């Protein structure tokens, strides 16, 4: 798991994912938050792999936060994105999110970015930055709960079963 081979493989994988992501024309999704959040979630994958490579190569000590880019970044973002999308679709609603959910997407991304860069951005205020990151991440999921709980406990709006 550690060493030159792992670092090299992580760097190659990061580069391959950047190439894949570059073909997606992510800049065209900026007006559709339910779509751009998927691009942001996927972007955390090459970021996390690149940070892992940097850490294993010994380039940056703060790159040890690569696990947070992969877990809170990729997994957390994709989980929130799919929960919002699937909840709308499975309740017969159009795939358009509210401003509150767009704010949740932004809060989640901000929380991950702060957590990943916490040691680098503010090494003397590490605990404060980590707490702010955690609060932003938690608030993002709390917004989901507030907005989607009523949607999920009511019948479908299109009258179909389910």
How do the strands and helices of this protein lay out in sequence?
Layout: H1 4-22, H2 33-57, H3 66-89, H4 99-121, H5 126-153
Structural commentary:
- This protein is mainly α and 162 residues long.
- The protein has one domain.
- It has helices spanning 4-22, 33-57, 66-89, 99-121, 126-153.
- Helix 1 runs antiparallel to helix 2.
- The termini are far apart.
- 34% of the residues are buried.
- The model has no long low-confidence stretch (mean pLDDT 92).
Overall spatial form:
globular
What's the number of extended β-strand segments? 0
Q: What number of structural domains do the residues give?
A: 1
Strand-pairing-aware structural class: mainly alpha
Task: Please provide a brief summary of the model.
This protein is an all-alpha fold and 162 residues long. The chain is built from 5 helices and no strands.
Main attributes of the structure:
about 0% strand; single chain; mainly alpha; about 160 residues
